[in-house]
Fold these 3 entries.
Entry 1:
Amino acid sequence: MAEQTIPRKKVVILGSTGSIGTSALKVAREIPDCMEVVGLAAGRRGEQLAEQAREFGVKHLAIADESLRDTVAAGAPSGAVVHAGAEGLRELARLPEAEMVLVSIVGTEGLQPALDAIEAGKDLAVASKEILVMAGEIVMAAAERAGVKVLPVDSEHNAIFQCLEGNAGGADAVRRLLLTASGGPFRTTGRESLAAVTPEQALDHPTWKMGPKITIDSATLFNKGLEMIEARWLFGVEMDRVEVVVHPQSIVHSMVEFVDGSVLAQLSTTDMCFPIQYAVTWPQRVAHSLKPLDFASLARLDFEEPRLEVFPALRLAREAGNRCGTLPAVMNAANEVAVDAFLRKNLSFPRIWELVEEVMANHEVVDSPSLETLLSADREARVAAQEVLARLSG
C-alpha cells in the first residue's frame, strides 16, 4: 500500500495557553509534518504565550490584555509582531498565511474572530461552544457562503462528525444524535445535598481536566446543554433529534442513531488531543503516540438517563434551542455570570440554574437576529443577571 501524503496545515490557535490550546500544541509537537503553528493568541498569560512562540518559532502573536503587550514582545522571538486587545485577536484570525483557525477562547470573545476567519477564507476549528450557541445560524451561513469548513473540536461533536462520515443520506438519514455526558462530580448526589456544594468540589471533575468555567458547566450539565444547541447547528438537525445520555466512563464520546436503527459510536481514551488532531488532519488520519484503548481492561460501559428533575440545565437548553433567536445567547450570558458568581462564592450551586431560568423567562426574544442584535442581547442579559444575582445572593 502506498504511503499517504498529508499536506502540512498552517494553523492559528486563539486561546493557546488554555487547556484546549496546550493540547493543540501537543498535537503540533506530535505531527510536525502535518501541522505548522503560524499564530498564537492568549488572554492574560503573556509570559507563557511568549514561551510558546519561542518553542514553535511563531512570529504572529496576540494578547487580549493590552497591558501585557510589552511583556509578550520582550519574550517573543526576534522579529515577532505582537497584536493586542480585541482587534489583535481579529488581526490574527485574518492572518493571510493561515489555512485554519482554532478558536478555543472561553466565552463570547471568540465570536467576532471566528467570523473574521471565515470571511478571510479560513477553515474554522471550533472548541468554544459559545460561538455556535450564540450565533449558530449566522456562523454556519457565513461558512457556506465562504465555502469553508466548520470542524468541531469538542470531543462529543467531533465524535458525531466522525460517525457521520460517509453518510450519503445527510440529516434525513439521522434519527438521533446522542451526546454522552460523564454526569460530572454530582452524578449520584441527591438534590437536597447540592445547596452545600463548594466550588472546590464542583471543580473536581471525575474524568476530564479542563478550565474552571467548563468544569463548573460540566457539574451543572450546562456544558451538555450548550453542546445540544451547538449540535443542532453543526449537523443541521432539530433539537428534538438531539439527546443526552449519561456515560460515566467517558469512553464513548457520542453516538449517531440512523433511521434504519443502526447506531455508530466513536470511542477513545479521554484525551482532547484525539479530536484536535482529527480536525487538523481531516479528511485523513495519521498515526500518533496517544494511549490506545485496552478493551480487556474496560470491564464495563454504563449508560443512564440524565436526572432532568435534579439538573434542569438540559431542559433550559432545549427550550433555548427550540425557540432560537436571541434566547440561546441570553441563556449563555446569564450562565457565565452565574458561574463566575459561584466561583467567587457569591451564589449557591443550585441557584446557578435559578438565575439562568429567571433571566431567560424575562427576556423578549428577537427572531432571526443580526450579529449586533445578538451582542446587544448578550449585554442586556448580563445586566439582568447581575440584578437577579444581587437579589439571590442577598
Entry 2:
Amino acid sequence: MATTEQILETLPRRKPHSRPDSWSDVLVIGAGPTGLACAIEAQKIGLRVIVVDKGCLVNSLFHYPANMTFFTTPELLEIGEIPFATANMKPTRQEALEYYRKVAEHYQLHVCQYTWVKTVTGEDNNFHVTATDRRGGIHDFRTRKVIVATGYYDLPNMMDIPGEDLPKVHHYYQEPHPYYQSDVLVIGGKNSAAIAALELWRHGARVTLVHHEPEMHRHVKYWIKPDIENRIKNGEIIAHFKSRVIEIGDDYVVVKTPDGTLRLENDFVFALTGYHPDFDFLQSLGIELSAEQCRPVCDPETLESNVPGIYVAGVIVAGSMTNEIFIENGRFHGKLIAKDLKQKFREKK
C-alpha cells in the first residue's frame, strides 16, 4: 500500500497567494483537523486564507496519549480529499500527526502556530484580529471573514477543590513510564480515565480510580470496558464509585465515599474530568450562546453565527454537548462554510 507521502507526490500542489502576510479573505482560528479542512475548502474557491493557533498544528491530537490508537477508521479522518494511508485498520496518533502535517504541506496552508488570538474587532468584510506569540509579540491581521474552529480540548473541567493547582495534578494523560512504583489516582469514568488507569497499572503504578457514577460509563469502548472492569474486580485497580475527591495534598488525597471519608497516600493525580469550549472567547466576539447547552447561535445551513461574517465550525457548534461532534463529522463543516463564502464573494463582485 502506498503511503500518504507517496500519494501526495502524485497530486498537483497549490500555489500560495502573494498578498501581504497580515491580510486575508478568511482567517481561521484553530489549526485542528476541522480548522484545516475549513482553510482548504476556502482556499479551493480561490480565497486567501490564514490559519492561527495558540499551539502547534493539530494541537489537541498532539496532546493525546502517546500510544493512542483511534477508534475510527482512517478514511473518516481524511480532509481535503487526501487519502489517509495506513497499514492498520485503525490509525495511531503518530500516523495522524504525520498525515495532517503532509496535508497542510500539500496545500501550502499559511499556518501561524503558537499565535494566540486575543481580540476580534470590526465588522463583516473588515475585521481586525490581534494576537500574541510565544515571546509576547503582538500581531495584527486584517480579514474579511473569520472562522472559529477552536475545539474544546484546551480547557479542562475543573473540580474546584483544594489542591487542584498542585504540580502533581494533571488534566491530560500522555504516557505511563514516569509513574512506575507510584501511587496514582485517576478521576473519571470514561474512555480517557479507563485507558490511563489500565496503562498506568500495566507499567507498574499503584492505581486508584474515583468516579462519581455507580460504574464505568456505558460509552467506554467495547474492548476496554471489560478489561477495566476485570482489573477492578480482581483488585488490581482499586475503584471507588459514587465517590468524589474533596481535597488534594502534597502526599495524599481525601475521597468522600458512600462508606465514609478516606485519606489515601498519593504521588500523582490525573483529573480526567472532561473539557469544554472557550465560551468566554465566543461571547467576546459577540456570538450568542443558548441558555442550557451554550450552543453558539448560527445558521445550520451555513454555520454563520449571529455576528455577520463570523462562522463557527467543529465541536464548538455543539456547545457543552462535546460528544456530538468529532473529526469524523466536523471535517465537513468546511464545505458548508465554503459554499456560503463562494456565494457571498460572488455577490460582492
Entry 3:
Amino acid sequence: MDKVNKNVSIQLLRIMSMLFVIFGCHLFSELNSTFLTKTTQFFNVGVFIFLFIFGYLYGKKNIQDYKKWYINRAKKILIPVYIFLIIFFLLKLFVNDFSLKYFIAALLNLEYYIGAPVGIGHLCFITIILICYILTPILKKQKFNYFEILLFLILSAIGSYINSKLGQSLFYILTYFLGMQYVKVENKINIKILGLFFIFLVAIIIRLIGLRFFDGTVLYDRIIFSLTQMTICLCFFIFFNRYIHFSPNKLIDYFDSISFYLYITHYMFMVGTFRLMGLTQNLLINSIITILFAYITAVLLKKASKIVESRLSI
C-alpha cells in the first residue's frame, strides 16, 4: 500500500499481519473449532503490527509539507474505502437491509465509535489510522523519553476504565507512537533471537494467565490484552527487520501492494448479508470460495481506486 520505505522485511511483515487478520482473526472464528476460535484474539496482533509499521515508516520519513502529506494519505486510504462502502451500502439497499445511521458513520469513518453493519466492522481500523495520521505532526516532534511513554501507558490504562473504546484507542495510538520512537533508538537496541523468543514467551504466558483469571474484566480485555499484544508486535517487528533479509521480489511486491485492498474486501464474504462461509456443507470449499471472492474484489477495488486517484490528480 505504501512505498515510503521499500524494505522487503517490512513488506513480508505487513503481508504476514494481513494474513493474521484475515485467517487468524476472521476466518478461524467462522470454523467449527473451539481451539481455533480461542486463538483468534492472539492473531489480532496483526492490527498492532500494522500500526507499529505505519509509525515506523512515517517516523523515518522527512515530511516537509504536511498539507500535501495529508492529502496523499487521505487519497490512498479513503478512495478505496469509499468505493467499497458505496458498493456495499448499495447492495444493502438492494436487499432492504440499509441503515442510514451506519451509512453516515461509515462516510465519516467513525465505525469504531458509532458501530457498523456486520461485514464491515473491521473498518474500525480506518478510524484509528486516520486519528494517528492527524496526530502525526505532534507525535513526530516528541523526543524518545521513557517517562512520556510510561505516562502514555498509564493514561491508556486509566482511559480503559473510563470507556473501553477510549482506552483501546489510546493503546492503538501508543503503538503507532512507539513505531515512531523506535526509529530513534533502533541502532541502540541489540536483542538476540533468543532474547526476543524469551520476551515473546513471557508475553504469551502473561496473556494466558490473564485469560485464565481475569477474562471479561477491563484489566484483561483492554490492559493485559493491549500490553501483551504490543510486546508481541515489537518482537515480530525486531525479528523481521533485523534477521529476515530477502532481495526485492515481484511476488512479495504484488501481495504487499494488494494487502490493503484485500483487508478491505474480505470480511463482507465471511459474515453478514453477503456471507459465503455457509454456501455449502464443506468448510474447505466455503473457505476457498470466500478467499477467492475476496481476492477478486480486492483486485477490482485496486484497479478502480487507481483510476479514481489518477483522475483526482489531474
